[in-house]
Amino acid sequence: MGVHRVAVVVLDGVAPLDLAIPTQVFRRRPETSYALTVCALSDRVATTGGFGLVVDAGLDQVRHADTVIVPGFEPALRPQPRAVLDVLAEARGRGRRVVSICTGAFALAAAGVLDGLHATTHWRHVDELERRFPAVAVDRDVLYVDEGEVLTSAGVCCGIDLCLHIVRRDLGAVTANRIARSLVAAPHRDGGQAQYVPTPVVVVGDTSLGSTRAWALERLDQPLSVDELARHARMSQRSFMRRFTEETGTTPLQWLVNARVGVARELLETTDHSIDQVARLCGLGSAANLRLYFRRALHTTPTAYRSTFTRHPRPQSP
Q1: Residues 233, 250 contacting (CB under 8 angstroms)
Q2: Fewer C-beta neighbours within 10 Å, C or N terminus of the chain?
Q3: Euclidean distance between CA atoms 1 and 315, whole angstroms
């Protein structure tokens, strides 16, 4: 690959880490041919870190770039200047590769770059992106989306995954792995960003079935049927199912599965229990069931999840 020009477009309210990721990955190295330029609409840009940046290059540099990257910024829904949107749309129109990290997707979407494509952003903002830009197909549980010449990453550090993926595409796995080692980062991570969303707190409240849900939460390690839950609530199954769905937005069985996966996550993070033990304690019965529901809910395995989130080192077998 000849010299490949990368322009990082810094918007007002940029997140410092989102900006640091592409500037680290695409800086000049002996084994790569990237030429990096950081540019902005004005020479001074505010950051979410409470300090300002002085940027030497203007947006005219975007027109010379092969890859254009927009790091995340806050607030995500802030309207962008017409000049910024035009330069992003022009880059896409010329067939250049256009990339966003985290909430940078909102700028790409506002410029029309994401219309008709799949894209992602930080899990806190996926609803906003979907609501504000209905022409974009939002993927909620991925680390990044590769649509060929338009790529988007999920929240913050997923920008590392995306940038290494781009290097892997451009220069191969050996170079991408070498850069990953220099960053002390994983060359590839399993799963999607759902595993980084805090375990939902099961709200009991003062609703009519709150006491039944609290009763069930204390017995997740035991077999629980809809009939048993309905009996505890002193309702017919039909009435119970209707009322439960009205109050929670889901079915009793799916609610139980979600609660059990939440318990499994906590056990995997805080204990050395085997996968079989975790499955029994959370009420999913077997390691096979735990893997099945974990994969469905979080798009990763219990073992990979534990490796990522364990809070204490696990002893290694000799």
Answers
A1: no
A2: C
A3: 44
Mean local confidence (pLDDT), 67-82: 96
Burial of residue 28 (number of CB atoms within 10 Å: 0-12, 13-18, 19+): exposed
The yes-or-no verdict on residue 205 having pLDDT over 60 is: no
pLDDT of residue 257: 92
Q: Which pLDDT band holds residue 2 (cuts at 50, 70, 90)?
A: confident
Q: How far is CA 111 from CA 15, 46, 139, in A?
A: 20, 22, 19
Domain ranges of the chain: 4-194, 210-309
**Residue partners of 29: CB distance under 8 A and separation at least 6:** 179
In degrees, to the nearest 5, what angle opens at C-alpha 24 toward C-alphas 102 and 125? Answer: 5
What is the Cα–Cα distance from 90 to 130, expressed in whole angstroms? 23
End-to-end CA gap in the chain: 45
DSSP 31: T
The domain at 4-194 falls in which architecture?
3-Layer(aba) Sandwich (3.40)
Question: Is pLDDT larger for residue 230 or for residue 184?
Answer: 230
**Rounded to an integer, what distance in angstroms lies between the CA atom of residue 54 and that of residue 141?**
35
At 86-119, the pLDDT tens digits run: 999 999 999 999 999 999 999 999 999 999 999 9
Q: Which two tokens stand for residue 255?
A: 């609610």
Q: Cis peptide leading into 79, omega within 30 of 0?
A: no
* The amino acid at 173: A
| 248: pLDDT strictly greater than 80 | no
DSSP 186-237: -SS--S-GGGGSPPPP---TTSTTHHHHHHHHTTTTS---HHHHHHHHTS-H
Q: Average pLDDT, whole number, for the chain?
A: 89
